[in-house]
Amino acid sequence: MTDLESYADLDLGRSERRGYPEAVYCAGKTLEQVAGIAAAVRSRPDVVTLFTRASPAHAEAVLGALPDAFHDPAAGLLAWPAPVPAPRGGLVVVVAAGTSDLPVARESMLTARYLGRETRLVVDVGVAGLHRIVSHLEMLRRARVVVVVAGMDGALPGVVAGLIAAPVVAVPTSVGYGAAFEGLAALLTMLNACAPGVAVVNIDNGYGAGHLAAQIAAP
Amino acid sequence: MTDLESYADLDLGRSERRGYPEAVYCAGKTLEQVAGIAAAVRSRPDVVTLFTRASPAHAEAVLGALPDAFHDPAAGLLAWPAPVPAPRGGLVVVVAAGTSDLPVARESMLTARYLGRETRLVVDVGVAGLHRIVSHLEMLRRARVVVVVAGMDGALPGVVAGLIAAPVVAVPTSVGYGAAFEGLAALLTMLNACAPGVAVVNIDNGYGAGHLAAQIAAP
Amino acid sequence: MTDLESYADLDLGRSERRGYPEAVYCAGKTLEQVAGIAAAVRSRPDVVTLFTRASPAHAEAVLGALPDAFHDPAAGLLAWPAPVPAPRGGLVVVVAAGTSDLPVARESMLTARYLGRETRLVVDVGVAGLHRIVSHLEMLRRARVVVVVAGMDGALPGVVAGLIAAPVVAVPTSVGYGAAFEGLAALLTMLNACAPGVAVVNIDNGYGAGHLAAQIAAP
Amino acid sequence: MTDLESYADLDLGRSERRGYPEAVYCAGKTLEQVAGIAAAVRSRPDVVTLFTRASPAHAEAVLGALPDAFHDPAAGLLAWPAPVPAPRGGLVVVVAAGTSDLPVARESMLTARYLGRETRLVVDVGVAGLHRIVSHLEMLRRARVVVVVAGMDGALPGVVAGLIAAPVVAVPTSVGYGAAFEGLAALLTMLNACAPGVAVVNIDNGYGAGHLAAQIAAP
Amino acid sequence: MTDLESYADLDLGRSERRGYPEAVYCAGKTLEQVAGIAAAVRSRPDVVTLFTRASPAHAEAVLGALPDAFHDPAAGLLAWPAPVPAPRGGLVVVVAAGTSDLPVARESMLTARYLGRETRLVVDVGVAGLHRIVSHLEMLRRARVVVVVAGMDGALPGVVAGLIAAPVVAVPTSVGYGAAFEGLAALLTMLNACAPGVAVVNIDNGYGAGHLAAQIAAP
Amino acid sequence: MTDLESYADLDLGRSERRGYPEAVYCAGKTLEQVAGIAAAVRSRPDVVTLFTRASPAHAEAVLGALPDAFHDPAAGLLAWPAPVPAPRGGLVVVVAAGTSDLPVARESMLTARYLGRETRLVVDVGVAGLHRIVSHLEMLRRARVVVVVAGMDGALPGVVAGLIAAPVVAVPTSVGYGAAFEGLAALLTMLNACAPGVAVVNIDNGYGAGHLAAQIAAP
Amino acid sequence: MTDLESYADLDLGRSERRGYPEAVYCAGKTLEQVAGIAAAVRSRPDVVTLFTRASPAHAEAVLGALPDAFHDPAAGLLAWPAPVPAPRGGLVVVVAAGTSDLPVARESMLTARYLGRETRLVVDVGVAGLHRIVSHLEMLRRARVVVVVAGMDGALPGVVAGLIAAPVVAVPTSVGYGAAFEGLAALLTMLNACAPGVAVVNIDNGYGAGHLAAQIAAP
Amino acid sequence: MTDLESYADLDLGRSERRGYPEAVYCAGKTLEQVAGIAAAVRSRPDVVTLFTRASPAHAEAVLGALPDAFHDPAAGLLAWPAPVPAPRGGLVVVVAAGTSDLPVARESMLTARYLGRETRLVVDVGVAGLHRIVSHLEMLRRARVVVVVAGMDGALPGVVAGLIAAPVVAVPTSVGYGAAFEGLAALLTMLNACAPGVAVVNIDNGYGAGHLAAQIAAP
């Protein structure tokens, strides 16, 4: 344990204080550090711990200590213990504007699911063909909150917000041609959405969006 | 009415479609246009209409047509009809980090109030003196959502999000020294908040924050 | 005439070379310079000359030399000779997303009109209420080119491009809250539009958009 | 087909609605996803499908399902069915300012060609030696639209626009020394072109430019 | 003199050390400070002193102490003693792309002239009509250095550099529509000029360009 | 007092907690708010209170409640009680690169002085004439910390840091031509200073620099 | 030695002039250059020389010439001679907000230590859980200066500065999601910290922070 | 030759028109293209041709066609024919602020040398130790022009310009910590240099600087 303390101070009380489990952001951590944290986590199976932004090597380090953890390679996410909690609160619908936005959308959906919400995923419904998003309107209107993940022009969250009463969590992705500037264009679009009701999070931050959605849809 | 159509297409159905009243963004509109819209609004007293970003001259134009409208000059906001709806849903707490953030915070609080939520306002509790925000912790934990308005470093929303279970709506303001870059610094801080659960809106957009908070705290 | 040469070299051959009249960009010119150019223009009534970005004082200077010029104060545009040429080529439809985008939209429409195109103007049809733009679909599909003027999130041009076969000329405006960054957000959105067929011009450049539209809709 | 639906919603109606074929943006898609889409495309040989931004691995995945597709490795573009449609409408001339701009220029030319336009390509005619572009003036003036692809200072589109009556589609490329900022400098130059008639698209977006040109030169 | 020392330390030795006179940058100085410096300057009539960026009030303050100073209000420049030195070294040609660039171009020309060079001024020869700059080619080729002042796309310096053997000093100006970003677009264009031989100075810095040109054309 | 609580929560304990007095940032506050705070301050004459960024109107509001306050209009600073505390700790030398940097330099010097340090001010010693700063070397080397205030290229702090053993507090100012970008250029220069030992603060933030210097030079 | 002079001019006098040892910035230097410098350093064992930003290959090159040098691979730092000097002056506490900030924090701590200060390291105490930093308050208040290393929102330095009397050296790191923009967000947060007393250095510049801290804590 | 025309239009007349040889910018060109150009160059040994930004693979391609070309791998530059022309005109001194700036400095020096100027190189004389640059003052003052190459804060060109009468060509490099932003910080510093007489070129553009210097020092 002394070694763990030299690089991490696990916030064991967070689950009590905020009511939500801790997440370990793997990017920037060494494999040794991630493995050490995973080993420490094994002692508290009562709360879910998420490992986000996990590269394949990070995932291997986690699975070494927690072999029965859930792992979604596309989303770069692991969860332990693996069983999904029984859903409580409102429905969280996650929308991916394009196929390239799927990894972030899945990270978002899985986070909300492990935080105890019912989730649905809708894919490839960008504004270039409005009929696609409109065809899902009935389901969107059943949601307590809708997470919309979009790169390029990032216009979809504003369009969705104009169609429903529930709040929209908007996630810009770093997908697109040069002047997308790694997600900056989509980020600005979302911050400037004409329709009110759009909550913006960081670029490619599917975890943050799923967490926020789970809080909004809390019972 | 023909003249009105030459510059505005009021979205009369929005209240039914989304369940929230329409808002008229006055900045960039001429006094004649604002007066014309105010006159048209008079014919539908059943839903509240907000006029936001109203300069004193804009306000005068609105009050010419709707003399009994509510007007908060500091927030640049008018509402008609003036009576506040009976509150439903959860509590919305609005926090202003500094005195200079008050106009935006008031715009946010009044919007949530006219959209039917109970509201509270907390002022001058920036992170430079942590004891100030901590002293309000009991009220913050009663909220269904907390709106945090902050300029300069914009650090307060992340600190508040780390202390409570409810989501935080973060509003950067254009207050600060040169490298605040008119709110850009605070905006980036909020998007990068370490604590999950922070929903970011546009710089100085108190109306958008209040609307989003009302949706999150909806019954 | 010697004095004129000290500050301007009128491109008298431009009408022959490119087939379109010259425009005098007034911003940044002194009143004396604008008046001198207007006086020189009087000697060639066979081609239309436009004066763009004309402040009220600039307009007065032009009208001093060309009292019978056409003048649209909102658009900051003058034209001489005033009679509109008989329209040739295809239809140019100009769409303003919001009321605040009207001055730029009018500049665009008037430019196309004085360059010899038939024009239509549609107002206040932003993406926050999709039914508004959809209700104009029949007219949009009749156009040879559609100019879409939008501030804030600038999402409308991409949505329109997804609905029609004709090209869209997109004009970002400097309208919006702080993170609109004086039109930068809308500009990036338009450059990243998911639907192909969007031609972007400079922020608030209604003249450029009208000129480009007239070229696209040329007979 | 159920698997395809989990990551893509092909817009089969786009060809009817807009009159132009669909394009599959490969960047950001996995090889499995691209292969799945290619397999689905095989069932509709009546319209051309383009695959853009295809890496060699993407191309292999497409060619696995559509072995007789056209493939231009430099442009990263595939088309199926391979035969070029008979040209209709006006001439599209594509100009590459420098040799390094060729891949984007070819993507643009091939797109316009597969969308049914006659095309010509002109190479290495940057503004550092004006005589080079001027020597092509006769052909440029025959075009219904000219696509100009340029990196570094991006000055060529404005120069070309000043020489011809037809509109110019300007494509900035990410070619250049440090302060080119990956195409930002060229993008800004093009948006600020002194000569009217310049339609700007995203950095390195040859596909978008070719599509827009095909629309402008439509019969 | 004690008071002068509290806000300025005149670099009396600069003329000896560098061979060029001192310039007093008036912007940001109070009228009292400018007047105090002007009074101190009176004691050294042997070298020219320039006052740059002088508002009308600054100019009045200078002329109060040095009534016989030369003053060009458009350029915001004063010089004392007023007589122009006899020209030595090579010819400096200053080119203004548009009429709006004239004030900066005049500041540049006058600086070079007071630093002892022969100067010529060419106006309104932007790249939108190439024939205009080409018509001055003979004079441009006689120059030891050419200063080119341009706003908007800032493309002219690169075009001129491609036509002549002498170096070009490029001065971006803050003239243009929104995406000119107060001269940033022109600045980047000039830094990325395809033709070698372009020396860039700060936005609107006519003084710096004139000084640099005088050094390049020194005997 | 109830009214004061509606817009400010004075941090009366700050002096005990941190050992330094409170400062009231006037920019963005109304005159009523500043006057109310000044009135409240009168009840605690035992610690110094600073009012920074005070416009003339703000100053009048403060002086209405605290007529015997110290006021430096150029620095926009007031202090109450007015007597300067007896100096303790090390010497703070404040250097202004140019005359235009004087207001910020004075704000910095006065802050350090009211926080109890001995101070010296050196003016107009920019890097364009190195002999000027070198002539003050003996005094610079006596300082416990040197504050260097510079606009334009902001190069002076790095040069000073290379000459002395004490740390340098660098303050960028918003002085300069266009590409100074309101102090951004100087800010970046200072952050990238080749010589270690440079502590950077916000643009034009003389107060912050003076406070930091006082802490560094504390006994 | 002649070869060394072709690429480096070692500042042998720096230790005398400034009182601190020289540091060799390895990034951007070839292995041959680094090896050559290391060989030259061997002749002056009386002062410590640091090698910073050393990749594993750089480290090997240094160790080839100075086999008994100290080497911390995570921090990319070597020191020779290896023995740590006896500490003088005040205590330097280095705080790393997250585990990913550790390499920069270690570089900072080691630099201060080799410059002769006593150091302590505190890890993983970000603002998302305030109780973590508060639990170290007693040690923080014993420090003469605190170095705070933080990525993402960069909020920790401002919070720490509000809790203690000593100055804080803030180091932004390039850790975080997209809108962290490689440390820009954290940098701006720190420059805008509400609490005075924050000295900002360059992104990821642990060496600079450690050097500055050693100067501030000098005896 | 037909194949060459498909990707390059060699400007054979440039040497006559401008008096300087052509340079082939290799970055972004394929090996086949570079080899083809090199083969075409062999037919005109009367003028020097430079190949810049040549990777090792590019260099091999050039040397395949021109085996006796001069090659400097560090500078990424080749020249053919290899013999250096007899120097004419004034002396060009090239200064590299740090060792890491050497590749760009060498590219600059070699370009000037192959364009017919006498050159000298000075290395590692950054502003952190002023005595280093001052020790070369005599040679600097003999130059007709000085090229100063610097990364990080980019302060050296302004300091040199303040010491000499000749113009300075400033080359920012992409060397430095995070907030150097790949050379942007140094670029801005140089554009804002307090001392007049600084001509700025693109980041890392040693070729451009050497060319400009050769023009300035032309006989």
Automatic annotation (TrEMBL), chains A, B, C, D, E, F, G, H:
Gene3D superfamilies: 3.40.50.1970
GO MF terms held by the record: hydrolase activity
Superkingdom of the organism of origin: Bacteria
InterPro entries associated with the record: P2CMN_synthase_LarB, PurE_dom
SUPFAM superfamilies tied to this protein: N5-CAIR mutase (phosphoribosylaminoimidazole carboxylase, PurE) (SSF52255)
SMART domains, per the entry: AIRC
Domain PurE: 90-219
One Pfam family this sequence matches: AIRC
Gene Ontology biological-process annotations: 'de novo' IMP biosynthetic process
Stretches assigned to coiled coil: none
Name the UniProt record assigns to this protein: 1-(5-phosphoribosyl)-5-amino-4-imidazole-carboxyl ate carboxylase
Species in which this protein is naturally found: Paractinoplanes toevensis
Lineage: Bacteria, Bacillati, Actinomycetota, Actinomycetes, Micromonosporales
